């Protein structure tokens, strides 16, 4: 697998990363052994970037990664960890906390759960409206100086926050949703990142499975957060699945699966964009990896633009209450 520099100041990482969230219950129950086997398969394929959050499964995901990495050299893997989201015992979401003292507490627990001495990329999962970004980034910079963190990233923030954060300490990457059907970053956020030398780690490249070519309403399971996602709701999902079918025909005509076409579209948007593949099973991973090296010609990109106009998808990417909290969605 090829590698790229993550922003102007970040580490070299594999051109694809593995997003591990789905291995800890967000899409319903996951098979622990298969999850670990998928992490191993990703590493064997050349993936070096693993993305997690300390709140995925309330620590479960970090413990799972620790177990999977026991036999692997520490310096062979780059761990990207999000912090700040607060959970309750019923798996609910109860806010964000990115105060410096809270960050140091979260970091201490992540180091313990992951079984490592440092985290490669550490980032707040969301902007905390109660805490200036300068305070949060400044505190993480102290952890960089102390050796507990190597690089600082951000997640789902807008241009003003990016600039303020970068004035405190170099930011290696912005983790944000980006796909053929979620293109809001193209107006201002992506140009600002390129101006500032900040890379993009793109999650949701298959729109949570909607444009994977494999999801259907019958696939929903207990505990799957898509049950509350606007794009999967009646009235929206029917329109969206019709859109998927038009994409399926384009993919088939080019000898690709729909998922491979969608991933190849993201990689075609620039070498500074690293897709995070949210595979929970080896079969999903192997399908996604086959998109590496696929080069979409101008004719294909134009056909995709016609088939999927920028605002073609029905429904926002999160429920209204969550959308209102996203700094990246503020004008």
UniProtKB/TrEMBL annotation:
<dbReference type="InterPro" id="IPR023210">
    <property type="entry name" value="NADP_OxRdtase_dom"/>
</dbReference>
<dbReference type="GO" id="GO:0016491">
    <property type="term" value="F:oxidoreductase activity"/>
</dbReference>
<feature type="domain" description="NADP-dependent oxidoreductase">
    <location>
        <begin position="17"/>
        <end position="306"/>
    </location>
</feature>
<dbReference type="InterPro" id="IPR036812">
    <property type="entry name" value="NAD(P)_OxRdtase_dom_sf"/>
</dbReference>
<dbReference type="Pfam" id="PF00248">
    <property type="entry name" value="Aldo_ket_red"/>
</dbReference>
<protein>
    <submittedName>
        <fullName>Aldo/keto reductase</fullName>
    </submittedName>
</protein>
<keyword id="KW-0560">Oxidoreductase</keyword>
<dbReference type="GO" id="GO:0005737">
    <property type="term" value="C:cytoplasm"/>
</dbReference>
<dbReference type="InterPro" id="IPR050791">
    <property type="entry name" value="Aldo-Keto_reductase"/>
</dbReference>
